[in-house]
Amino acid sequence: MTPWTRGRRIGVDVGTVRVGVAVCDPDGILASPVATVPRDPATDSDQIPSDMSEILRLVAEYEAVAIIVGLPINLAGQEGPAAVLIRQYADRLAALADPVPVLLTDERMSTAAATRRLSERGVRGRRQRAVIDQVAAVEILQRWLDAHRAGAVRG
C-alpha cells in the first residue's frame, strides 16, 4: 500500500441518472456530502459531459489530491456489466482530471447502507431520492479512507 499523503479526496457514486459527490477533510478522517449532479449521457468524445465538468470543478475548488470512484461489484465479488460502464466512466474522467488520479474502489452495498442511514434518520420518499447519491458517495469515500488510513498506520 502506498504511504498516506495529506489532502482532500473526492468520492463519486456514479448512477445512470445522477452522480453523488462527497469530499473529505485534508487529514482524510471524515467524508461529507457535497452535491448530486444530473448524469449527462453525452458520449461525444470531443465534448465533456456536464457531470464530469462539475466533478472537475469540485476537484479544483477543494484542491483534491485524488478522485475515488465506486466500482459496483456483485455480492459474489465479480464485476458485471455495470462495472464495465463505470470503468469506462472512470477512464474518461481520469483523462480529463490528469494529473489528479482517479481510483476505483469496491462500492458493494454502499447504496443499501446509505438508504438504511437515511431511513434511520427519518428521511424517506422524495427527500431520500434527492440525497441518496450523495450519501452513497460519502459511504464509498469513508470506506476507502478508513481502509487506506488503517493501512498507512500499520504499514
Write the layout of secondary structure elements.
Layout: E1 9-14, E2 18-24, E3 31-38, H1 50-62, E4 66-71, H2 81-97, E5 102-106, H3 110-120, H4 125-154
Parallel strand pairs: 1-4, 4-5
Antiparallel strand pairs: 1-2, 2-3
Describe the structure.
The chain contains four helices and five strands; from the N terminus they run βββαβαβαα. The longest helix has 30 residues, at 125-154. By secondary structure, the chain is α/β, with parallel strands linked by helices. The model has no long low-confidence stretch (mean pLDDT 84). It has a five-stranded mixed sheet, sandwiched between helices. α3 (110-120) packs across α4.
Which characteristics define this entry?
21% strand; 155 residues; alpha/beta; 5-stranded mixed β-sheet; globular; 5 strands
